[in-house]
Design a protein that fits this description.
The chain is α+β, with helices and mostly antiparallel strands. It has three helices and 18 strands. The protein has a 16-stranded antiparallel β-sheet that branches. A hairpin with a 3-residue loop joins strand 6 and strand 7. The radius of gyration is 29 Å and the shape is elongated.
């Protein structure tokens, strides 16, 4: 009798433990489901809340999911034209095209995106970039950080690098930028319809756009690439360039819808620099010593002019069929500062994106 009770206990205890664990798992699953359902209902409420747009022009997609696969090409460049010791020096720098592959998933207006650079795996590219952005029909912002390397360039004064753009060694440009914009005709025009496809532009519409931009950056030039022969011809060289500006922007954007299968976008938003500070450290090569050393020569500041400006140009085309779409966008940002009789500098960034997506 005791043995049978003991055997019953051996069977009952694991069974009770299993039932208890199963109940806990069910409770935990039920709690998780409640949280997910609550989050989904909040997201759905925000997604379908009273839309203040003109639905004859702009609507939300019927399907809640938007998934995109994309391929990006980027390039950064800058150029200086300066006068030292009664001699004009012109320099041009541009980096190799930087490519990346990524995807984004959007659910009822909430999105996440990931991308990677295939060249990172072969150590052919050490560029670093970080972006944080938010776009809707009324306003939006983006904050970015970049550290760009692998520059090539030319120097017109000494006829170096003019036939082909040779490497500037470890020359690199590090920068931080922040932009915010406001769309006046936000009931009929949609920026996201052309770029992240969280809205649908049904009819052609345009809008004036205003905003502000802030940028700070520093370019370090690798002087170790110059040998003694180049140093005798060059004499002076830029060592470091520091760039800061604050601008107010005003422009126009237009979405053209020739049919329900096509969307074409064009916008140009120039800005006037209300404040800027561009300086450069100049070094002089000491041609009488060994190893081509150099010594600090001066710190030059680009003159302030009302003609100092920046701008952003955007172009895009998207083709839709059923729940699928594909397209491409081009974004160019640029700056120009200085006086052509004394010293000028211009620079910018290109970004070309192709993508294919589906709504679920």
């Amino acid at each position: 009798m005791k043995i049978s009770k003991f055997l019953l206990a051996l069977v009952a205890i694991p069974a009770f433990s299993f039932v208890t664990q199963d109940c806990h798992a069910q409770e935990k699953k039920s709690f998780t489901d409640k949280i997910l359902k609550k989050a989904d209902s909040v997201s759905h409420l925000l997604y379908t809340k009273k839309i203040k747009t003109d639905t004859n022009y702009v609507i939300r997609p019927i399907r809640p999911w938007t998934i995109k696969l994309r391929y990006d090409l980027k390039r950064t460049y800058f150029s200086t034209d300066d006068l030292y010791d009664n001699q004009r020096y012109k320099y041009y720098f541009e980096n190799d095209f930087n490519s990346s592959i990524g995807f984004s998933v959007n659910y009822q207006g909430l999105s996440i995106s990931l991308s990677f650079n295939p060249q990172k795996f072969s150590s052919k590219n050490n560029d670093t970039e970080f972006n944080l952005n938010y776009y809707n029909n009324k306003w939006g912002f983006d904050i970015s950080y970049s550290n760009v390397r692998r520059f090539r360039g030319s120097n017109e004064f000494i006829d170096l690098f003019t036939d082909k753009k040779e490497s500037w060694g470890d020359t690199h440009l590090k920068g931080y930028s922040a932009n915010i914009y406001y769309v006046f005709n936000n009931k009929k025009f949609s920026y996201p319809a052309a770029f992240n496809h969280t809205w649908i532009q049904k009819r052609s519409a345009g809008s004036f756009i205003t905003g502000i931009s802030v940028y700070t950056g520093k370019a370090d030039v690798d002087l170790s690439i110059f040998d003694e022969e180049w140093a005798r011809r060059l004499r002076y060289m830029i060592d470091e360039v520091r760039m800061k500006y604050f601008s107010i922007n005003f422009g126009y954007a237009y979405n053209f819808v020739p049919s329900r299968h096509w969307l074409l976008h064009a916008s140009f938003v120039p800005g006037i620099m209300l404040w800027k500070d561009y300086t450069a450290d100049i070094v002089a090569f000491d041609i009488n010593s060994n190893g081509v050393p150099y010594t600090p020569y001066s710190t030059e500041r680009w003159p302030k002019r009302i003609t100092d400006f920046s701008g952003t140009l955007r172009l895009g085309v998207t083709h839709f069929w059923d729940r699928y779409f594909l397209g491409a966008t081009v974004v160019k940002q640029f700056e120009y500062v200085g006086d052509s009789d004394i010293a000028t500098m211009y620079g910018g960034r290109w970004k070309i994106r192709t993508y294919v997506g589906v709504r679920l």
